[in-house]
Amino acid sequence: MSPRQAEEAPAAVAHPPLPRLLAAFFYGACSFLIVLVNKTVLTTYSFPSPMVLGIGQMATTILILYVSKLNKIIHYPDFDKSIPVKLFPLPLLYVGNHISGLSSTSKLSLPMFTVLRKFTIPLTLLLEVIILRKRYSLGIIASVFVIILGAFIAAGSDLSFNLEGYTVVLLNDIFTAASGVYTKQKMDPKELGKYGVLFYNAYFMVIPTVIISFSTGDLQQATEFKHWTNFLFLFQFLLSCFLGFLLMYSTVLCSHYNSALTTTVVGAIKNISIAYIGMLVGGDYIFSILNFIGLNICMAGGLRYSFLALQDHNKPKQPTDEENTHLDSKS
């Protein structure tokens, strides 16, 4: 086998089921935990700046990955002129996702917001087909649209129309889907690899975010916050920063072992699970028949997708005509 063939061989090998399941579970757990911690920091303690919290998460990511590289625990390419070109357009998508995400929640009711956010799933599927040239079975496509149908039913009579709100949330969907798909593309070892994507994305975005935070007065509000000497607040702020790193890492890991689409579906299943938990504890879930039926349809679609995705991964890959021609020409 030539060095070139040896380099290309791993790309054709499907990952075994256990690492894929563990990566998906790790992402779901990190996503769930950071929601709880961020809610405490931003709501219970009334911390005035989500942007500064985001800066803390990016700085933590840079520090952990840089120290890990110095100690030869991980590897990613050293900086050179080609890095910004290889990374583009991820930083722009990250900023767009962050800004539209912060703006979107206040524009619509929670049920309608949940429905529109589910459109991230078919958008991710479409972009994977266009950008990554992936092909999905009819069963997986049907499962995606069952999730969308369930979200519409769950929203019930609250399908209010707000043009500005619709625009902002759908832009957030596009940025989220594109960010996931391009992250999958850039993780190729010939590009930046998993750790390179994480490090340089945070590296290129932390300074512009600090500048935006300073110019808007956001940074000043954060520095004047009264609870910096409160040990419990400080612990949860630092915990949020660490969980921010774990969330970024788990997102990349889940996309690496599975796909950007699977990562998006796991996020949707996580949100449905939170709603189920809210029915039992917390007291802020308002029960209605339509909402309950819609949630169950969403969950059924998500579980069906998970089963079909695992089944598709376990099928042996058949070379296409183009690949056969390529191999024949080599021999």
Automatic annotation (TrEMBL):
It comes from the Eukaryota. One of its GO terms (cellular component) is membrane. Residues 26-306 form the Sugar phosphate transporter domain. Pfam families: TPT (PF03151). The chain crosses the membrane at residues 21-41, 47-67, 136-157, 163-183, 195-216, 228-248, 260-279, 285-307. Coiled coil: none annotated. The keyword Membrane applies. It is a multi-pass membrane protein. It is found in: Membrane. Keywords: Membrane, Transmembrane, Transmembrane helix. This is Sugar phosphate transporter domain-containing protein. It comes from Pelusios castaneus (West African mud turtle). The lineage of its organism: Eukaryota, Metazoa, Chordata, Craniata, Vertebrata.
